[in-house]
Design brief:
Layout lengths: L1 E5 L7 E11 L11 E5 L2 E2 L2 E8 L5 E12 L5 E7 L14
Antiparallel strand pairs: 1-7, 2-6, 3-4, 3-7, 5-6
């Protein structure tokens, strides 16, 4: 699991703010995009996922995520990204990324 941090952006609430990010992953961490979910304040976020690049072993190298996040007025926000392997275990992301 890793977190995406949003800084204070605006003086009004931004509900369902469209966001996107490309995530680099270490070799072997994730085999397919179905194991990815995003959470904010304990609730799952609507999410679109696309594999941009893969390693020779078939694991995901770069993953593009589009989602809707709620960003409160005059505050930052945190979105947690959870990666699960085929066996259901939560994957650890390398600190190198």
């Amino acid at each position: 699991m890793f977190t995406l941090n949003f800084e204070k952006l605006y003086n009004r609430d931004r509900l369902a703010q469209p966001c996107f990010v490309s995530v680099p992953l270490a070799k072997g961490v994730l085999k397919e995009e179905d194991g990815v979910s995003l959470w904010q304040n304990g609730k799952p976020l609507p999410l679109q996922k696309k594999v941009l690049s893969s390693y020779p072993d078939g694991s995901v190298r770069f993953l593009f995520l589009r989602f809707l996040a709620d960003i409160p007025a005059n505050q930052g926000a945190v979105v947690e990204c959870e990666l699960k392997s085929d066996s259901g275990a939560v994957c650890e992301v390398s600190e190198a990324y």
